[in-house]
Amino acid sequence: MSTLQLSPHDYAALASDIKRWARELGFADAGIANTNLTEDELHLKRWLGEGNHGEMDYMARHGDKRSRPAELEPGTIRVISVRMDYIPPGTRNAWNVLHDPESGYVSRYALGRDYHKLMRNRLQKLAECIHGVIGDFGYRAFVDSAPVLEKALARNAGMGWIGKHTVLINRQAGSYFFLGELYTDLPLPVDTPATAHCGSCRRCIDICPTQAIIGPYKLDARRCISYLTIELRGSIPEELREPMGNRIFGCDDCQLICPWNKFAQDATEPDFAPRHALDGAKLIELFAWSEQEFLQRTEGMAIRRTGYEGWLRNIAVALGNAPHTEEVRQALLSRAEHPSAIVREHVAWALQRHAA
């Protein structure tokens, strides 16, 4: 708990300082929210009850802690929400990669260094800035690392609204940014929640390759390519393989088509720059990586999360969707006897597609 009692005026000044420090630490923006997420909790329970989370059992495992910050971190009465832009200048145009079936598409957020540790370190520094002014206080930093309704909290902190594709949208910066939070016991003044500005637009719903956005503000994760290529550990349903195209880690279509992303800002963090030309590398080259090469080249990257087996599975599907060439067929044949039954299954599917 905080050991220093401030007046409302002092807390308002502190809130202003916190936002300034956040920007100085490399965050694009910061806001402050209370912990009331009653409506979002009801929405989450309906979503879970319908099974839309698929195999992501952790979404339900923590009970109400996700929507009740004080149950996750006792004493929490405010949440400092921050965001950080993630697409660096010079990244290969996403549409060009998607329209090149010989290249593998990796979601733009995953091209460089994994953001989790980087942002958590910055949040710790933000907490140290606060401590330097007021002394000890209660806090805990989160970056997609615990049951936190980060988009709802960011919305309540005035940093954007949750779009029909369920991604947070900022009027001045689109949606290409990461979120992080500091849960705290400081009674800071809260910001005005953002209002929605999607209007009648439904481009994100219409463009989804697998029709995973089953209605405005409602995503069936079991059909989402991000889920299929990252979270799912088993076989990708056959009817969803062709719509995946050349997407081998995540999917950005719903964001790429969003009109608000004409305001997207370039990342200022150099560590987010693409590594190993993954903003448009050739599928055959990626499929040839050994497990050691995969682990070495994805060290410190979010791509590591899919695992080597998942990596080969995803690329096998993309190669099955690639134009038929002898080079593609030989690449697939090189993995036809792979030790993993999952890899063998998806390679066999891809070879069958080319044989047909």
Automatic annotation (TrEMBL):
The keyword Membrane does not apply. Keywords: 4Fe-4S, Cobalamin, Cobalt, Cytoplasm, Iron, Iron-sulfur, Metal-binding, Oxidoreductase, Queuosine biosynthesis, tRNA processing. Its EC number is 1.17.99.6. [4Fe-4S] cluster 1 binds at residues 198, 201, 204, 258. One of its GO terms (cellular component) is cytoplasm. [4Fe-4S] cluster 2 binds at residues 208, 224, 251, 254. Its cofactor is [4Fe-4S] cluster; cob(II)alamin. GO terms for molecular function: 4 iron, 4 sulfur cluster binding; cobalamin binding; epoxyqueuosine reductase activity; metal ion binding. Belongs to the QueG family. Monomer. This is Epoxyqueuosine reductase. The lineage of its organism: Bacteria, Pseudomonadati, Pseudomonadota, Gammaproteobacteria, Lysobacterales.
